[in-house]
Amino acid sequence: MEGIAKAKAAGVYKGRPASIDPAQVQQLKAEGMGPSQIAKHLGIGRASVYPALEG
Hints:
Arc Repressor Mutant, subunit A; 4 helices; 64% helix
């Protein structure tokens, strides 16, 4: 835990980059697509769509 805290402080430990763009998910929803359609269109799991729609 100490090492991770030091790495985060140094800006080295950033985690995995986001695989989807929440703005794109929101745009597709505004165009009338449902979560399943959005997931297929973006090539991601449907469960990944819901957090993007909430936030």
